[in-house]
Amino acid sequence: MTSPVRTAIFPVAGLGTRFLPATKATPKELLPVLDTPLIQYAIDEAQAAGVERLIFVSHPSKSAIERHVMDDVRLRADLRARGKDDLAQALQDAALCPEADDVVFTMQDQPLGLGHAVLCARDHVLPGPVAVILPDDLILGAPCLSEMVAGYTGGHMVATMTVAAEEVSKYGILSVTGRDGALLRADGMVEKPDPKAAPSCEAVVGRYVLDASIFDDLATQAPGAGGEIQLTDAIARGAAAVGLSGMRFSGLRFDCGSKGGMLRATLHLAESDPECAAVLADLRGSSTAPPRAA
Fold first, then answer.
1. Are 269 and 173 in a shared domain?
2. Strand 32-33 vs strand 36-37: parallel, antiparallel, or unpaired?
3. Alpha carbons 28 and 256: distance in angstroms, whole number
4. Are β-strands 183-191 and 137-140 bridged in parallel, bridged antiparallel, or unpaired?
5. Cβ-proximal residues to 5 (8 Å cutoff; 6+ apart), any chain
6. CA-CA distance, 29 to 137, in Å (whole number)?
7. Tens-place pLDDT, residues 190-226
8. In terms of C-beta density within 10 A (0-12 exposed, 13-18 middle, 19 or more buried), how is residue 102 classed?
């Protein structure tokens, strides 16, 4: 069955300053959670949702992302020559092929905000609604974008999760007007509200399915917080015209834009890895004894 959402946009131009010096030479999207880079989880999620075209809005200093994402024939040949056929096949399975896959790289030369990054993809999107995936919002378990596409009926849709009242000032918050299971009807969004003025506790996280009108709204959007073009502001502007909804996803979300979130995600995946689970068991068994040598 063909997905109604044919394009996914990956805004990957950010400098990852919270992870410096690790991100001085390595883009934050290539930082691994256990043994898989963040960007790979995002690509897999988009492909699982039936997306046809993948658009990476990058920065000229982050060419390593394209090298990781695209197939490396020479590297695979070298691995096979060394008898590492399984590893070569795994790399081929994970990589995007310039002939078989519809992939676009475009540049955001200046850090003018998430909304501006999405606008940079405008000339490359396929007709219809578009998805936006923020790779550092890692969602494990049920594929979030697949759930959103399955529940999408038009307009703008955002992924949401319920947070504690004291946490609402850290997120964009949905103004909820009705509920139908996991689907929330809304009439607007408020960016990082004071807890006393928040319209709900439904926080927006880094997955969006947006009506194509978002590009017209972004093109005329005045700068918001930090002097940047905010995607949240443009979504809120268009809500009255095209509609707005939220999807309470069923997966487990980790904020891998922070060191704490990255560590939580790594420990979560380590629990199901036999080699790592043994290390965790050692650490739990003795909080004072040094770990065994590997």
1. no
2. antiparallel
3. 9
4. unpaired
5. 49, 50, 51, 128, 129, 130, 131, 145, 149, 152, 209
6. 10
7. 888 899 989 999 999 999 999 999 999 999 998 887 7
8. middle
SS3 5: coil
Considering the domain architecture, whether residues 243 and 264 belong to the same structural domain is answered as no
Residue 221 domain-assigned? yes
Measured between its terminal Cα atoms, the distance across the chain in Å is 48
Could you tell me if 133 and 28 lie in one domain? yes
d(CA 232, CA 158): 10
Q: What is the pLDDT of residues 20-30, one digit of tens each?
A: 898 988 999 99
Residue with tokens 């139908």: 180
Does 2 fall in a domain? no
Residue pair 58/69 in contact (Cβ under 8 Å)? The answer is no
Domain shared by 292 and 189, yes or no:
no
Q: Which domain holds residue 272?
A: 259-294
Distance (Å, whole) CA 34 – CA 268: 9
Q: How many residues are there in the chain?
A: 294
pTM of the shown model:
0.90
Q: Residue 120 is encoded by which pair of tokens?
A: 């940079």
- Which H/E stretch holds residue 160? strand 156-162
**Contacts with 39 (C-beta within 8 Å, 6 or more apart), sequence order:** 10, 12, 29, 30, 65, 68, 69, 135
Q: Are 18 and 60 in contact (CB under 8 A)?
A: no
For residues 268 and 240, what is the distance between their CA atoms, to the nearest angstrom?
Answer: 40
